[in-house]
């Protein structure tokens, strides 16, 4: 099908974007071309630097920061570990109950850190007395959206740092997160990229509060000059936290993130949320203003109706993205009415 100016080979009833996004055709084609170059011995390692840079710039644009503030990695948890490992003993971290564990586990594994989780809607009112707040912009399990203005105000008043995981938001929700100390996100969900690419935006004054736990040659100021030998010589910007890239993932991400960064995300949001809220309305439930819907029902019935979805928190989770249509809404209804 064709949507938002590009083609998607997506089957009807595919509502599993919160787990795995479908790539725009040019993304899949770019990866296939790179696989062929690999298969035929035509690739050279340094050719992937361009893809890493393009993907980095795309993520920067999507979250509202400069590219030099963005580190490139493979997964959200690996990138958040750079933040958690740098925290001094005695640090108090506040998180949301039931948040995705790639956000919370890097802090919880730190023996000197105390992690407290509270209901998402109470998060801003509970910031006082904590040093760091770590939360997903959009909750993976059910699509609830954090009250970012209230959180920002509360964190400013309390002098607390803020880490945001934008994974379930970036690609459909317009974002300007330059105010946050750290913003993480991965590419294989709403950004239609291969799994193996992720990014961490680091506010300049937060860089000294971040530790390169997987320091490596690619995190050097000039990676091709930091392949061998000491002394330590990491990049002066957020690239100091880079991980050596997963090549094929970066090839796809370069194309995908440029595509999404060029969209009017307000239109994407209106499309996605419009379908999600239409589904809720037809099921007799109030609108929720998010692209992810969590429904009480039998996953087997959903599968029998031709719906590709996931089960999260004991409920069927569906997500609507730019390649979904009103026909997908109609397909869901019989399984939950």
UniProtKB/TrEMBL annotation:
Q: Does the keyword Transferase belong to this entry?
A: yes
Under Gene3D superfamilies, the record lists: Aspartate Aminotransferase, domain 1, Type I PLP-dependent aspartate aminotransferase-like (Major domain)
Has UniProt tagged this entry with the keyword Transferase?
Answer: yes
Instruction: Please state what the protein is called.
Output: Aminotransferase class V
This protein's source sits in the domain of life called Bacteria
What are this entry's molecular-function GO terms? transaminase activity
Aminotransferase class V domain location, by residue?
A: 47-285
Q: What is the lineage of its organism?
A: Bacteria, Bacillati, Actinomycetota, Actinomycetes, Pseudonocardiales
Q: Name one GO biological process term.
A: antibiotic biosynthetic process
The UniProt keywords, alphabetically, are: Aminotransferase, Antibiotic biosynthesis, Transferase
One Pfam assignment: Aminotran_5
